[in-house]
Amino acid sequence: xxxxxxxxxxxxxxxxxxxxxxxxxxxxxxxxxxxxxxxxxxxxxxxxxxxxxxxxxxxxxxxxxxxxxxxxxxxxxxxxxxxxxxxxxxxxxxxxxxxxxxxxxxxxxxxxxxxxxxxxxxxxxxxxxxxxxxxxxxxxxxxxxxxxxxxxxxxxxxxxxxxxxxxxxxxxxxxxxxxxxxxxxxxxxxxxxxxxxxxx
Length: 200
Known about the structure:
single chain, alpha/beta, Rossmann fold, 5-stranded parallel sheet
């Protein structure tokens, strides 16, 4: 970061904003509805342990089948890896354009498995000034510590950050922290938001 850089920070979420989360139920062949899956996934201590770096991939793949109703299966790994995150078309162009006005960063609750997927498929994240990944930092949205990592790195006030996420709880927490936060799903909505911000 340039010490004289006073551009605001554009803080982007990964899944749902820059990447399509796909259909994990279909990909893994689970006997769950999609809402049931997400309720289970977001509340599971095992998922949280993986996504805050407290559990490795092998331990996770041994523990998660029972949580997802697949107890008794010995080789769940290939099924889990079939759940792929795919970047939405146009992400690279949007980030390049945004970097003319913003210091662009990523803040994601994610795990090494999914991060490896998206970074193997694309080099777009080389355009980001900083990526804050929960499995590396140990800090998990909507906890304020996740947002403090960002303001500390950029040495800025919360009000200097424009945060975009697809989760209402994360948006609410960011706003409580003092960040200008907006719920967005997909690149088209993100581009519209940035267009409005640029014309304000």
